[in-house]
Amino acid sequence: MKQDMTKRFFLGSATAAIGTLLTGCGQASAKRPAETFEVTKTPAEWRKILPPERYAVLREEKTERPRSSHLNAEHRRGTYACAGCRLPVYRSEAKFESGTGWPSFTAPISGAIRTRPDGFAMFARTEVHCRRCGGHLGHVFDDGPAPTGKRYCMNGAALVFNVA
Question: Which one of 82, 85, 133, 153 is the catalytic residue?
Fold first, then answer.
């Protein structure tokens, strides 16, 4: 009997979750206001200058596989810049090992990013974008270390590293 109730709870919850995804409930907003950026290109122009994985992350807001970025092992002094427009967005001093499989930072360079609600599935996240070209960099969470308590969890494919 208990097993049947557990199965029903699971199936009911799964059905509700799928219904939410299919109907668009749980999204932050059905239509986002148009944003303007200093660097703008057509999708065809972005595809010409970005390799497929970078295009998917920066322009289609995809996420790379965890632990796939060589930037996880980057420990030199320098800056991390948007791979789309090369705007410096994070300093190496802000990088920390989060254990998530993606490069993580405690804070961006002042004025380098924009954020907006993601509304992914049934829980809200906050997207991080380059303020100059609008490229999707990753997400920010409230579970980071001091001094900010933030974890800017970035896609390595969205960043390039410049040695100081």
Answer: 153
Q: How many domains does the chain have?
A: 1
| C-alpha dihedral (32, 89, 149, 57), degrees to nearest 10 | 50
Rounded CA gap, 24 and 159, in Å? 30
Instruction: Report the CATH number at residue 94.
Output: 2.170.150.20
Asked if residues 76 and 92 have their Cβ atoms less than 8 Å apart, the reply is: yes
pLDDT, block means (10 residues), the chain with 164 residues: 40 36 35 81 97 98 96 97 98 97 98 89 86 98 96 98 96
Annotated catalytic residue 25:
no
Please name which of 38, 37, 71 lies closest in space to residue 54, comparing C-alpha atoms: 71
